[in-house]
């Protein structure tokens, strides 16, 4: 087998540097160079969602409990997450990446794969193309990105991590095998502490040894994963960059700082969750038919309940109607306190996929006026659009329905 | 209360009323059947509060009285007995004792005083419909109702009586069925009723063997009489949309198809359609109509049928289920399809209408991805 995997392909992995924390620094330049973390407060069991590079010098990393982070760095600056702001910035980022390739596969708000195969020729070189991507991101968002470029997704992702932050690493096809084989074995996708220990027991301690082991032996020990590890040790990865993975569900959830028991308060929180969910449906031009309610009790027992709406919807009120009924039916809520509450909408359709309507909304007015019915669909659509525009202009939570003011919680998507 | 009745007769009565007994109810007494014995025989009533069925039958009554009996339990016991078995029923308090053959059982009933009252019939006007017309009208329209409770008025069938015309219309907002009949339907002219399909289907079931269905309207109830059985159905509130407005007069692209061939092709092609939208494409070309489907991650397929069409080409997307459900109700084997634009309603009609009947099925398209 030739030792140049995936010739002719050029895949980039773009990974933003300390994305949430960097956005906070952009929004408040006085934070520049200071140890900044984004995450909930320690007294509310917060964890570090992102840490600036100054904070990382204190040994702070993401997913660390906030209490521990504060002990490591007493003058740490903690900022509560503003997910809507990060999401908007992410939309901007993906838009920038879209100008370089039609095939952009977002992995998270702050990272994406791009298929750039053949595009380096018009620019001059792959390295030049990589620099242009980084420069455009910096110019338009003020943020820095680390970019890895390689013949496939696996190596590209390793490469973006190679010179982080603010780096560019290009791995030519001919260098891919030696690049991978010189990395610690734990860098191989699928090798965690457990698998590493198991590999160690059969005498495999580095990637080169992994590449030289017999696939049948690996299969015996690790099943299909073993074969995959062997492929990766040879830097082989044929997975395509998938441009637009269809959204299967849209959801929002909240973990409470203090476990909650009051149904009135939970309903207030639910209103907010439904609004956030509806807003994201509308942003994605999606509608959904199934509403899911997720409740985690104080003992971590988790229940999910779902029901369907009569017609695909993107309206917070209609989602709330179902979700609150599901909440009311959950009798245990009266007896046990709730740690987490979440709302999701599935069975999604793009609006363009909806069957065309025979009647306009004005032809389907109910004659018995009620709070919901007296604003027909078109009126409600207009209201929703206006609320969205207000939020787009002035930031999230500019407008809230009255019920929301009952409750406060900590959002963690 | 005391009476005796054959298994066959009791079984028949129970089968008439059992359909209105709700499978789940917050009101326990609704799971029971009200049984009243008078000198002439038995009356049985069941209700889910929206739909009630009342029927009468003969029995040897020794002592008059009334009781409510759990429908499921009495039904299961009676079902297991032979048709010629004589069943002797005697009630004391809420205990219903049944003696049959060499066995007996005692079921605990509930106080008949707690059973919901049937609506009072105070209507003197009535219309009499031939069972055959009623049955055809229901079968050709009821399938298109909406199940969306937020659009109440679309969850029932519009029942329009106009003297010499009877129209049954239903729509879920995406498709519409209209079955119109000519005849002498005098008695309730000018009434527009919205009736739940469940009640209409029950009347169809109970009417078989009876020549006429008599309909009266009492406040917010429609009351159907077939023989010795009466079906009470709550009417649906709301304004049925102005359906005449959305039925296109001129759909210029017209062609004829064999119904069974068309349905077969739709069924085969739609196997590979998206499971939510069920979208298939109909491309009408001179002399043929091409059905096709292409779904990401699922596959693609196509099939062509010859048609008598010579006009310009047009392609429209449809939900395959909507087409199939409409076609299934068309009685003739030749159908006519009439299209206009890819975003306006398509029409399906029998190539030749049945006598004194006018059937029309309307289906709104789905947007084609490349349109």
From TrEMBL, chain A:
<keyword id="KW-0808">Transferase</keyword>
<dbReference type="GO" id="GO:0000287">
    <property type="term" value="F:magnesium ion binding"/>
</dbReference>
<keyword id="KW-0479">Metal-binding</keyword>
<dbReference type="GO" id="GO:0006281">
    <property type="term" value="P:DNA repair"/>
</dbReference>
<dbReference type="InterPro" id="IPR043502">
    <property type="entry name" value="DNA/RNA_pol_sf"/>
</dbReference>
<keyword id="KW-0234">DNA repair</keyword>
<dbReference type="Pfam" id="PF11799">
    <property type="entry name" value="IMS_C"/>
</dbReference>
<keyword id="KW-0460">Magnesium</keyword>
<dbReference type="Pfam" id="PF00817">
    <property type="entry name" value="IMS"/>
</dbReference>
<keyword id="KW-0227">DNA damage</keyword>
<dbReference type="GO" id="GO:0003684">
    <property type="term" value="F:damaged DNA binding"/>
</dbReference>
<dbReference type="InterPro" id="IPR017961">
    <property type="entry name" value="DNA_pol_Y-fam_little_finger"/>
</dbReference>
<comment type="similarity">
    <text>Belongs to the DNA polymerase type-Y family.</text>
</comment>
<comment type="subunit">
    <text>Monomer.</text>
</comment>
<dbReference type="GO" id="GO:0005829">
    <property type="term" value="C:cytosol"/>
</dbReference>
<comment type="function">
    <text>Poorly processive, error-prone DNA polymerase involved in untargeted mutagenesis. Copies undamaged DNA at stalled replication forks, which arise in vivo from mismatched or misaligned primer ends. These misaligned primers can be extended by PolIV. Exhibits no 3'-5' exonuclease (proofreading) activity. May be involved in translesional synthesis, in conjunction with the beta clamp from PolIII.</text>
</comment>
<dbReference type="InterPro" id="IPR036775">
    <property type="entry name" value="DNA_pol_Y-fam_lit_finger_sf"/>
</dbReference>
<keyword id="KW-0239">DNA-directed DNA polymerase</keyword>
<dbReference type="InterPro" id="IPR022880">
    <property type="entry name" value="DNApol_IV"/>
</dbReference>
<feature type="binding site">
    <location>
        <position position="15"/>
    </location>
    <ligand>
        <name>Mg(2+)</name>
    </ligand>
</feature>
<dbReference type="Pfam" id="PF11798">
    <property type="entry name" value="IMS_HHH"/>
</dbReference>
<keyword id="KW-0963">Cytoplasm</keyword>
UniProtKB/TrEMBL annotation, chain B:
<dbReference type="GO" id="GO:0003887">
    <property type="term" value="F:DNA-directed DNA polymerase activity"/>
</dbReference>
<dbReference type="Pfam" id="PF00712">
    <property type="entry name" value="DNA_pol3_beta"/>
</dbReference>
<keyword id="KW-0963">Cytoplasm</keyword>
<feature type="domain" description="DNA polymerase III beta sliding clamp central">
    <location>
        <begin position="129"/>
        <end position="242"/>
    </location>
</feature>
<dbReference type="GO" id="GO:0003677">
    <property type="term" value="F:DNA binding"/>
</dbReference>
<keyword id="KW-0235">DNA replication</keyword>
<keyword id="KW-0548">Nucleotidyltransferase</keyword>
<keyword id="KW-0239">DNA-directed DNA polymerase</keyword>
<dbReference type="GO" id="GO:0009360">
    <property type="term" value="C:DNA polymerase III complex"/>
</dbReference>
<dbReference type="InterPro" id="IPR022635">
    <property type="entry name" value="DNA_polIII_beta_C"/>
</dbReference>
<comment type="similarity">
    <text>Belongs to the beta sliding clamp family.</text>
</comment>
<protein>
    <recommendedName>
        <fullName>Beta sliding clamp</fullName>
    </recommendedName>
</protein>
<feature type="domain" description="DNA polymerase III beta sliding clamp N-terminal">
    <location>
        <begin position="1"/>
        <end position="119"/>
    </location>
</feature>
<keyword id="KW-0808">Transferase</keyword>
<dbReference type="InterPro" id="IPR022637">
    <property type="entry name" value="DNA_polIII_beta_cen"/>
</dbReference>
<dbReference type="GO" id="GO:0006271">
    <property type="term" value="P:DNA strand elongation involved in DNA replication"/>
</dbReference>
<dbReference type="GO" id="GO:0005737">
    <property type="term" value="C:cytoplasm"/>
</dbReference>
<comment type="function">
    <text>Confers DNA tethering and processivity to DNA polymerases and other proteins. Acts as a clamp, forming a ring around DNA (a reaction catalyzed by the clamp-loading complex) which diffuses in an ATP-independent manner freely and bidirectionally along dsDNA. Initially characterized for its ability to contact the catalytic subunit of DNA polymerase III (Pol III), a complex, multichain enzyme responsible for most of the replicative synthesis in bacteria; Pol III exhibits 3'-5' exonuclease proofreading activity.</text>
</comment>
<dbReference type="InterPro" id="IPR022634">
    <property type="entry name" value="DNA_polIII_beta_N"/>
</dbReference>
<dbReference type="Pfam" id="PF02768">
    <property type="entry name" value="DNA_pol3_beta_3"/>
</dbReference>
<dbReference type="InterPro" id="IPR001001">
    <property type="entry name" value="DNA_polIII_beta"/>
</dbReference>
<comment type="subunit">
    <text>Forms a ring-shaped head-to-tail homodimer around DNA.</text>
</comment>
